[in-house]
Design a protein that fits this description.
This is Gfo/Idh/MocA-like oxidoreductase N-terminal domain-containing protein. With 426 residues, the chain is α/β, with parallel strands linked by helices. The protein has 16 helices and 16 strands. It has three domains: 126 residues, NAD(P)-binding Rossmann-like Domain (Rossmann fold), CATH 3.40.50; 229 residues, 2-Layer Sandwich (Dihydrodipicolinate Reductase, domain 2); 47 residues, no CATH class.
Length: 426
């Protein structure tokens, strides 16, 4: 039985620790929680106790080394804010543990280099949790492309839209500061760029990007004629009439995780999406040439009226067209099955000179189109055979963020960026 410690007990952490306790009691043991906030640490223990598990030791983040020494985990699960992932990855590796980290693995090239050096130095392993690889519809796309159904893939047009619930949420919390998250092209699009790498079995070569903050933020609201502003929802009368506000007091989990915990660290989970201090983009377009020769055109919008994606592959023998509509949600550490749950999906194969064929794909149970349970089983249970190689290493994690890091650099410089120039380690 493997032993796991977890650092970063915010909303995303519940996905991992709840599953270990509830679903894998015979193969995985949770031995410690670690965080900068003692209120959230206490809440995490109440959550596992509600599932019949006894409370486990808790440690402040400054006691990370002591946690490892006293509880002897085999693996450390990292769900802290993105800019700190590399710190805990490297320290865990140096202390003799393997690592499971949330995406993105890290947010820039220097931090990525440090992780590679630590893996080489320790010969330990890092897993990056790309649950979208495990979703049945994404697995089926990979199978179709690998089978040669449309021949050699020359072009991919990929549009991902975040709606005014999930998309807006990135502009309320720590993600709104690019120094914390790398922006959405790193934090969110790492999923999408990883899927392209996974589907096409290739890697990015050169990137050009454009992006702006066009909808969220105070200046954009002022241009649309808004004159009434507030800094955060809690305690604001103006927020009561704003469909973009987040009511921490109205959600038991949000209240326990954030409203009740903010006295310790001053972190406000419910900041106004139309306030100052937002340094990430909400409207982005990227073009990528891959090593295979395939060209990707990609767009991400964070204020759409629906949530999901369309991706079209054009190859030497035809075209594959995909549309996936997901349910709306806000990450509150609540019912994980709602995250990325499907409303509908369509996969249409259009061979040259033949009639189109609709590809049937069973709808998976659980979050992210059924990908979450498969990922969790792979991490904490007995993995199924995986001929597609869905388990992602630190190398996969690096290639997934390489496109977003290069896109950020392209937006900054206004020019095409070669990935290997920016990240020589790749």
């Amino acid at each position: 039985m493997k032993k796991y410690a977890l650092i970063g007990t915010g909303g995303r952490a519940t996905f991992f620790y709840t599953s270990i306790v509830r679903d894998f009691p015979n193969t995985a043991q949770l031995v410690a929680f670690c965080d900068t906030n003692t209120t959230r640490l206490a809440y995490a223990n109440t959550q596992i106790q509600s599932l019949g598990h006894s409370a486990i030791p808790t440690y402040h983040a400054r006691e990370f080394d002591r946690m490892i020494e006293e509880t002897h985990p085999d693996e450390v699960i990292i769900t802290t804010i993105d800019r700190t992932h590399h710190q805990y990855i490297i320290r865990a590796l140096d202390l003799g543990c393997n690592v499971i980290t949330e995406k993105p693995m890290t947010i820039d090239a220097p931090r990525c280099r440090q992780i590679f050096d630590a893996v080489d130095r320790t010969q330990r392993h890092v897993r990056v949790t790309f649950n979208y690889r495990y979703a049945p519809h994404n697995t089926r796309i990979a199978e179709l492309l690998a089978s040669g159904a449309i021949g050699e893939v020359h072009a991919v047009h990929f549009e991902w839209v975040l709606n005014t619930s999930h998309g807006a949420d990135y502009f309320r919390r720590w993600h709104r500061d690019k120094k914390n998250s790398g922006g959405l092209l790193v934090h969110k699009s790492t999923h999408h760029f990883d899927l392209v790498n996974f589907w096409l079995r290739t890697r990015p070569e050169s990137v050009v990007a454009m992006g702006d903050l066009r909808f969220y933020g105070k200046e954009n609201a002022e241009r649309r004629g808004e004159t009434r502003f507030y800094s955060r929802s809690r305690g604001s009368e103006l927020a009561r009439d704003d469909p973009f506000s987040l009511d921490l007091e109205g959600n038991d989990k949000l209240k326990a995780l954030y409203a009740d915990a903010e006295w310790e660290d001053g972190y406000y989970r419910d900041q106004s999406v139309f306030g100052d201090g937002i340094s990430i983009e909400d409207t982005m377009g990227v073009m990528v040439r891959h090593q295979s020769g395939a060209v990707l055109t990609y767009s991400l919008t964070a204020y759409a009226p629906w949530e999901g994606f369309r991706v079209n592959f054009t190859g030497s023998k035809g075209r594959l067209e995909v549309e996936v509509v997901e349910q709306s949600y806000v990450n509150s550490g609540g019912e994980q099955a709602l995250e990325g749950a499907l409303e509908r999906q369509t996969i249409l194969l259009r061979p040259l000179f033949e009639k189109p064929v609709e590809i049937e794909v069973p709808t998976g149970q659980g979050g992210h189109g059924g990908g979450d349970p498969q990922l969790l089983k792979d991490l904490f249970g007995t993995p199924d055979a995986d001929p597609l190689g869905r388990a992602a290493t630190h190398v996969d994690g690096a290639w997934s963020i390489a496109t977003g890091i290069a896109a950020n650099e392209s937006m900054r410089k206004g020019e095409v960026v070669r990935v290997r120039d920016l990240m020589p380690l790749l």
